[in-house]
Design goal:
The structure is a single chain. This protein is mainly alpha-helical and 235 residues long. The protein has three domains: 47 residues, no CATH class; 83 residues; 92 residues, no CATH class. It contains eight helices and two strands, in the order ββαααααααα. It has a two-stranded antiparallel sheet with strand order 1-2. A hairpin with a 6-residue loop joins strand 1 and strand 2. The chain is flat and about 95 Å long.
């Protein structure tokens, strides 16, 4: 039985050097000899991962989206004699195509470009619902401002997560952004309804989020507490 003189690891009889620190161990009372059979193979076999054909994946997903698009459209044509309710299904499937298969067509998709495309597709789909419904006046004063507010919040979160700042500061900023987006949505809704108070429910959302954000910023400034939290959360 031999132990590493550097780190104290117990060596198996088949080992001539420490598997952790690569220090050769010489035991005069138990000299090392080549074992007849090792507990592991002499060569390391590596798995070669085949590159996934993303274009094939896009084709499969696209076909999967075409099937649920054709069935409602044909049903609508046979029953109603035209495209009526099926336009909502087609619009939702188009948004899903923009969200998932379209970015897979590019090796390095520009996340800001697809953020814009996602925002436009959602805004367009909601406008489709607005134009097809009998009601008027809620799209430009309610739906579109909410979509823009949420989209700007997502954009700011993307910029912050891509920055080189610490993880705690990123989390604090994202908490604050979620709170601000909730306030902006509340303002838009109350303005649309003509409410006398500019904010209602968003106060209960933004208050704890700002508290959490402040706590994370304080922890980020305290080096000892930050290191202890890093050990606890393994980040």
């Amino acid at each position: 039985m031999s132990f590493c003189v550097n780190c104290g690891v117990r060596l198996a009889p088949s080992e001539q050097q420490c598997p952790l620190c690569d220090v050769f161990v010489i035991n005069p009372l138990n000299p090392w000899t080549e074992p007849a059979e090792r507990p592991y193979p002499k060569r390391v076999e590596t798995l070669i991962k085949k590159n996934v054909d993303t274009k094939f994946t896009v084709i499969i997903i696209s076909i999967s989206l075409i099937i649920p698009a054709i069935i409602p459209m044909l049903t609508d044509l046979f029953i109603a004699g035209g495209i009526t309710w099926s336009r909502y299904v087609l619009g939702a499937l188009f948004c899903l195509f923009v969200f998932v298969p379209l970015p897979l067509m590019f090796k390095r998709p520009n996340k800001y470009l697809f953020w814009l495309l996602d925002t436009l597709s959602v805004a367009g789909y909601v406008f489709l619902i607005y134009s097809s419904s009998g009601s008027r006046g809620w799209y430009f004063s309610l739906a579109l401002p909410i979509i823009i507010s949420v989209a700007l919040g997502v954009l700011l979160s993307m910029i912050i997560t891509a920055s080189s700042t610490s993880s705690l500061k990123k989390a604090a900023a994202i908490f604050a952004i979620i709170g601000l987006v909730s306030v902006s949505v509340d303002l838009v809704i109350n303005f649309h309804l003509g409410s006398s108070s500019p904010v209602h429910w968003s106060v209960f959302v933004v208050s704890p989020l700002l508290v959490f954000s402040s706590i994370l910023l304080v922890i980020d400034r305290k080096v000892e507490l930050k290191e202890e939290l890093r050990k606890r959360l393994f980040y």
